[in-house]
Amino acid sequence: MIKHNVASGPAVYPLEVLEKISKGVLEYESNEISILEITHRSELFFAIRDELISLTKEFLNVPDDFSLLYLQGGGRQHLAQIPMNFLSKNEKALFIDSGYWSSKAIEYTKFYGEAEIISSSKNGNYNSIPEQSFSELDGKYLQYCANNTIYGTQFQELPKANIPVVVDMSSEIFSRSIDFKKVDLVMACAQKNIGPAGLSLLIIKNSFLENANDNVPAIFNYKNLANKNSNYNTPPIFQICASLEMLRWMKAKGGVSFFETETKRRAELLYKAIDKSELVQNNISVKDRSIMNIVFDAIDIKSEQKIVEVFANANIKNIKGHKARGGFRVANYLGQSLETIELIAQRLL
Ligand code: PMP
Question: Are 169 and 191 in contact (CB under 8 A)?
Answer without folding.
Answer: no
